[in-house]
Structures are given as C-alpha cells and as structure tokens.
Amino acid sequence: MVHKLRLLVILGLLATFSVLVSCNDDDEPKVSPIVGTWNYDSYKLDITVDGQDLLTYLVQVMGLTQEEAIFAKAFFTASLFEDSDLEGTTFTFNADGTYSVKNGGVEEDSGTYQVQNNNTKLVLTSSDDGTVQEFVIETLTSNRIIVSFEDSFEEDINEDETLEEVGLDFELTMVK
Questions:
Q1: d(CA 142, CA 84)
Q2: Any idea what the Cα angle at residue 45 is, between residues 105 and 93, rounded to 5°?
Q3: Is the pTM for the entire model greater than 0.85?
C-alpha cells in the first residue's frame, strides 16, 4: 500500500513538473507578420469587359486600332484609379486586431481586421460605416505583402444602350 502511494506521489510530481517545464516563453502567442506599418509600393489593375481583356474588347468589339485601344484603355483606367491615389499611403495593422489607413499622414479609414485561412485572407471592417472588405493575401512576409480583390460593375462601354459587365482585378503591394 505504501509502495502504491509512493508511486502515485512520484507520478503526480512528474506530471506537475512536466506541465511546469512545458510552460515557457515558446508558449507566448506568435505575432502575425502582418502586424506593423506598411507603405504603398505598387499596384496592378486588370480590367475585363464581358469576360474579355479590355484591350481585346476595344479592338475586337469596338473596332479600334491597336494604338487607339491602348490610348482608350489608359484613359479608362485613369478614370477609375491612378497611382497618385495611393502614393504616400500607409496601412498600420496592430497586434490587438485594429488597423488604420493614412494618406499623407491623414487618417482615411480605421477599424478591425482579421487574418484568416492560414494567412491567405484579410478581412477589414471599417469603424466608420461597418463596411467589410475581403482581400486575398497573395504574399505575406516580414517585409512585403501583396493583397488582391476582384470587383465588377455594369457600364455601357460602347454606348449601345446595353450594359456591359466590367470586371476589376486589383493587386496591391506594400512594404515595411
């Protein structure tokens, strides 16, 4: 009986010791590589019309020459978005799950964020109006992040009184 009691005490001490040894600094939560301040680096914008690349659509459907189509594509793209729209923009992601977006030091947006699906999805929820924006995380390292999203809208591109579906595939690169 004493032998069994001693064995139980030893096993209890071993269990306690193993729990204490396993509770070290390695158990502290890892900080996501997204945490920090990111600076705008570049963007890529691909536009489709009714499933065709914009340039192809302009040449094949609208009958423009290649040169005219290149000019029209640049004009249309600039009407949607320009590089200067993001120059000087920073995105700050805090460890507490909050974010802020500043352009030229002036806050333009803030709210909460979540990184989901094993660092492949970024979800931003704006504190201004509750708008939720989801991004695909293409690349996430300690000093570079590339996020993308797709959107679409209808527009009468060729002025035939029929709406065409315009697709946008936007990719944003930021660096620390």
A1: 26
A2: 35
A3: no
Closest CA to 57 of 68, 48, 67, 65: 48
DSSP labels, 152-164: EEEE-TTSSS-PE
Residue 99 · residue 92 · CB < 8 Å = yes
Residues 6+ apart with CB under 8 A from 42: 172, 173
Structure tokens at 154: 């209808």
CB 149, CB 46: distance < 8 Å: no
- Per-10-residue mean pLDDT for the chain, 176 residues long? 34 36 56 93 94 95 95 88 85 97 94 95 95 96 96 90 94 96
3-state secondary structure of 66: helix
pLDDT of amino acid 26:
55
Q: Which residues on neighbouring strands pair with residue 97, listed in sequence order? A: none
User: Which residues lie across from 90 on neighbouring strands?
Assistant: 39, 102
Contacts 24+ apart (CB under 8 A), 13-20: none
Task: Judge contact between 97 and 35, C-beta under 8 A.
Answer: no
